[in-house]
């Protein structure tokens, strides 16, 4: 089997997405911590792997892949036997639609603002920007409502099987559920809240976030 090395911080939601895929199929990998808080991702050594300084980067037998969507689909095709991508075209398109919503509309207000302000800033003796949190909450709600409208559930987002869409959303909910905004954020999306009650108990998620 190929040798996999993930470069990125263990706390990153996108690093956790990649790890969820690998852990779910029992694939071996190494995790090389990149400290984004100190700017290690902006140093020449890491920029040689990822020219935009984002995380994660996946190294596969000496070849480099970045962008979590590309990494996820590659891993599903090579180590997971396509089990995490629906075969039916519309379901696969909805999976990618959810992944894109996470990237484009959910991550910034939820992780970059609410989670950072509620969990990270206080841990570094800073003061939460309440105005920023209040402004971010409606954007999180809008993104979650869009995801719920697309999803079919049963019990996972797109039916009875886990897909890459679940792996993208699970790390987001892990952090959001630890903020005071969780109840308000999910107040209009009861099916997503029920989804989290199931997937939040996933043993692979517990291993990745432990």
Topology:
Elements: E1 4-7, H1 13-24, E2 30-32, H2 44-47, E3 57-60, E4 63-66, H3 68-78, H4 89-123, H5 130-150, H6 164-176, H7 182-185, H8 190-199, H9 203-209
Parallel strand pairs: 1-2
Antiparallel strand pairs: 1-3, 3-4
The helix/strand order is: EHEHEEHHHHHHH
- The CATH topology of the largest domain comes to Glutathione S-transferase Yfyf (Class Pi), Chain A, domain 2
Poorly predicted parts: none
How many beta-strand segments? 4
Architecture of the largest domain, according to CATH?
A: Up-down Bundle
Q: State Rg.
A: 17 Å
Mean pLDDT, as a whole number?
97
Gap between N and C termini = 26 Å
Number of domains: 2
Report the total helices: 9
Helix content: 55-70%
Largest sheet: 4 strands, mixed
Q: Given the helix and strand composition, which structural class is it?
A: alpha+beta
CATH class of the largest domain: Mainly Alpha
Overall geometric form: globular
In order across it, which strands form the biggest sheet?
2-1-3-4
Percentage beta strand: 5-15%
């Amino acid at each position: 089997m190929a040798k996999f090395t993930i470069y990125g911080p263990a706390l990153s939601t996108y690093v956790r997405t990649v790890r969820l895929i690998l852990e779910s199929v029992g694939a071996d990998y190494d995790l090389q911590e990149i400290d984004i808080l100190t700017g290690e991702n902006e140093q020449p050594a890491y920029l040689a792997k990822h020219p935009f300084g984002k995380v994660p980067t996946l190294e596969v037998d000496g070849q480099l892949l970045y962008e979590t969507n590309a990494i996820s689909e590659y891993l599903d095709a090579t180590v997971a036997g396509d089990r995490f991508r629906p075969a039916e075209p519309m379901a696969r398109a909805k999976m990618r639609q959810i992944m894109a919503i996470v990237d484009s509309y959910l991550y910034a207000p939820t992780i970059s603002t609410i989670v950072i302000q509620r969990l990270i800033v206080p841990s570094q003796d800073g003061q939460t920007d309440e105005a920023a949190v209040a402004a971010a909450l409606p954007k999180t709600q809008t993104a979650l409502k869009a995801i719920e409208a697309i999803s079919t559930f049963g019990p996972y987002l797109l039916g009875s099987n886990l897909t890459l869409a679940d792996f993208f959303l699970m790390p987001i909910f892990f952090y959001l559920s630890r903020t005071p905004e969780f109840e308000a954020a999910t107040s209009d999306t009861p099916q997503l809240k029920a989804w989290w009650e199931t997937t939040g108990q996933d043993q692979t998620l517990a291993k990745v976030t432990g």
